[in-house]
Prior knowledge:
Layout: E1 2-9, H1 16-24, H2 34-38, E2 44-46, H3 56-61, H4 67-70, E3 73-75, E4 87-90, E5 94-97, H5 111-130, E6 135-142
Parallel strand pairs: 1-4
Antiparallel strand pairs: 1-6, 2-6, 3-6, 4-5
Amino acid sequence: MKSLVVVLIDPESNRLRDELARNLEPYRLDDDDLESIRSRHWDYWFLPTGEPISDPEIEERFPNEDPEIRENSSVVGNLPKDFVCSGIISNELGWVDLQEYGWSLINEPCRANKKAMKEWTKRIREIFTEHSEKICVQVIVHC
């Protein structure tokens, strides 16, 4: 399954790609570790195309960063108010996502998934408000 997640990065970071990789690495699937298989993990990730969240502040602060990273990055407080993702990864929070609120691929669409999305969207807003100074990079992870 592919999911759009955002990775929250310290605003003092100098290299977004390096920080992105460092924050994603703890969740890389280890096929030889049962705990890794049972927990949240990814086996590959990539930057989305077609839905940029470009932020002029990022463009200005990171002129030498890979353009693909810049167009998928924003200061959290500058994100569109209706921005939604299926998960958030950060040093402070770990990996939190829609499944924690009851989302399931079984019997989709269903009332339980609508409720889960509503609760998750509320939680996203809370997290984004609490971490408005952070930088987020959107990625697609394959779980």
